[in-house]
Amino acid sequence: MTVPITLAQGDITAQHADALVNAANSSLLGGGGVDGAIHRRGGPEILAECRRLRASRYGKGLPTGQAVATTAGRLDAAHVIHTVGPVWSATEDRSALLASCHREALRVAAELGARTLAFPAISTGVYRWPIDDAARIAVRTVREAADPALFDEVRFVLFDQAAYDAYAEALAAAADG
Ligand code: AR6
């Protein structure tokens, strides 16, 4: 048995789930893309909690590949789980870090009792990871790491058609394999 993996196209901040994953950076203090949208729509409570995390557990920032939860503020979710994807490199294989983002977000979600979780396409925007490769890693990792007893649904929310198609293809390939 594997967890049901679903796909949606659009803005992740318009989604309802127990937890939404943010493609953050180590500072946890905001940025563009998904991160900008989450803070804009979620409101100042999220940033306030991120600042507290920086003042306590994550004085040096959240390391790449790790995940931490905050409130979801005004978003239609109970939690935001912030994770930091690796920047794409053509010379160094950072796939394990991208897989780790997904695994750690699942681990944090399970700790919180979040049974539905929505991921964006981590690292595929500002961090330039090729979408087909990111999709393959994300889908494979979630299939392997999400315990079906703990999750009802893991959703990937893809901003554009090309990203949606890449994840659909990765999902079909994983189901065949
Ligand atoms: N909803 C869903 N997907 C989105 C949205 C949205 N509202 N906005 C963009 N995407 P990115 P990264 C897609 O850049 O590559 C930030 O500045 C986008 O098309 O958000 O992990 C952070 O602070 C792409 O496919 O995240 C970091 O500094 C995917 O989401 C840095 O960017 C991820 O794009 C992280 O870069």
What topology emerges from the helices and strands here?
Blueprint: E1 5-9, E2 19-24, H1 33-42, H2 44-55, E3 67-71, E4 79-84, H3 95-112, E5 116-119, H4 131-145, E6 153-158, H5 161-176
Parallel strand pairs: 1-6, 2-4, 2-5, 5-6
Antiparallel strand pairs: 3-4
Protein name: O-acetyl-ADP-ribose deacetylase
Pfam family, one: Macro
Domain Macro: 1-175
Give a structural overview:
This protein is an alpha/beta fold. The chain has one domain (5-176): Leucine Aminopeptidase, subunit E, domain 1 (3-Layer(aba) Sandwich). It is built from 5 helices and 6 strands; from the N terminus they run ββααββαβαβα. A 6-stranded mixed sheet has the order 1-6-5-2-4-3, with helices on both faces. β5, α4 and β6 form a beta-alpha-beta unit. The protein starts with a strand and ends with a helix. Residues 11-13, 23-25, 31-35, 37, 85, 120-127, 157, 159, 163 line the site of ligand AR6. Pfam families: Macro. It comes from Streptomyces anatolicus. This is O-acetyl-ADP-ribose deacetylase. InterPro entries: Macro_dom, Macro_dom-like.
Secondary-structure element string: EEHHEEHEHEH
Number of strands: 6
Q: In terms of per-residue confidence, which ranges show pLDDT below 50 for 5 or more consecutive residues?
A: none
Q: Which strand order does the major sheet show?
A: 1-6-5-2-4-3
- Give the helix/strand class: alpha/beta
Number of helices: 5
**SS strand fraction:** 15-25%
Largest sheet: 6 strands, mixed
Tell me, briefly, the overall form: globular
The quaternary organization reads as single chain
Taking all residues together, what is the mean pLDDT?
97
What is the domain total for the residues? 1
**Radius of gyration based on Cα positions:** 15 Å
* N-C termini distance: 14 Å
CATH topology: Leucine Aminopeptidase, subunit E, domain 1
Which ligands, by name, code or SMILES, are bound? ligand AR6
CATH architecture: 3-Layer(aba) Sandwich
CATH superfamily: Leucine Aminopeptidase, subunit E, domain 1
Proportion of residues in helical segments: 40-55%
CATH class, please? Alpha Beta
